[in-house]
Amino acid sequence: MIDKLNEAYEKFQAEIETLSAQADVLSLKSSYLGKKGAVSEILKSLKDATPEERKEIGPKANEIKQEIEKLVAKKLSDIELAQINEKLSKNKIDITFTDAVKAKNNNHGGFHPRTLVQQEVEDIFLSMGFEVLDGPHIETEFYNFEALNIPGDHPARDMQDTFWFKDEKSPEGNKHLLRTHTSTIQVRGMQSRKPPFRFIAPGTVFRCERTDASHEMVFQQLEGMMVGKDISVSNLIYFMKEILTEIFKKDVEVRLRPGYFPFVEPGFELDIKCQVCSGKGCSVCKQVGWVELLPCGMVHPNVLRAGGIDPEEYNGFAFGLGLDRLVMMKYGIDDIRHLQSGDLRFNSQFKEY
Ligand code: FA5
């Protein structure tokens, strides 16, 4: 009987080799392992075997059944793989946007002007030794306000109309909100490094305000911070001038005037001569000829303390560049809402990949 089982197994091996359809494999399997299959038929004569023969035949029959199952499983998966490969070779998808795609269709993608300007600004700051940081859009009131010297009852909270979440407070008892400015990253950045340091943090911010030619509800800022010993307003002005010269590649008129932000002291507003109307007055600059672009100042001691830095030993400057407005000034865009419109006629005017 053992010989018969071995013979059946060898025959099975030879037959399965020749098959290439899953249904044929399953039918072959049942012709060997099914109730009336070859192996089952051989085992029917087990009743005539002696107890010693049975001890030998039983395990051998199980072994052969298992081998047949294994061969069937392998064959089925080989067939499936072959089918997938055949499909792939017939339906090739070019995911690389290569010349072939470009040749067929000239409307291929390009970078959004905001991305172009952000990359340019990041490169300039990286070349001046700044790190680039990121932070969460959903923040706690601690990072958006309190740590920036704006406690709960401070009127400055009304300067930025805030989208609040109705959900549960954070474990520290803080309400959640959509960050209204990238200044949230000032304290996060300070908490995770030791002075001296310098970093920028570009990102999306959210304000519940009415839109017009120069205001959006969802827009981009780029925060910057430098902390060390004996940092002065002159250092601040140097970096601000440097960045604008690099971006515009020409002299642009700017003006510095006092500005109030609870997290800096002294604070400044840096305005740029409106590049859309050359200062004559338009809807972007609200007919005044100047656009608020880059508020900045020397970091308030309370903010340094919130970031774990001793204000007796260190000081620094911070700024919050309005990235969308910078894009508008660079390209002469007369309405901020074009940037988020998704209108291809607008987007396709900018550089291609
Ligand atoms: C702030 O958000 C401060 N966090 C900036 C700052 C950082 C000051 C560090 C001092 C030190 P402000 O609300 O002015 O400030 O916004 C900063 C810039 O973002 C503005 O100058 C403007 O360029 C841009 N901005 C403000 N509101 C809008 C808006 N609704 N749409 C588009 N850009 C805006």
UniProtKB/TrEMBL annotation:
CC cofactor note: Binds 2 magnesium ions per tetramer.
Reported cofactor(s): Mg(2+)
Subcellular location: Cytoplasm
Coiled-coil regions, chain positions: 2-29
Domain Aminoacyl-transfer RNA synthetases class-II family profile intervals: 110-329
Record field: catalytic activity: tRNA(Phe) + L-phenylalanine + ATP = L-phenylalanyl-tRNA(Phe) + AMP + diphosphate + H(+)
Record note on quaternary structure: Tetramer of two alpha and two beta subunits.
Name of protein: Phenylalanine--tRNA ligase alpha subunit
Protein source organism: Halobacteriovorax vibrionivorans
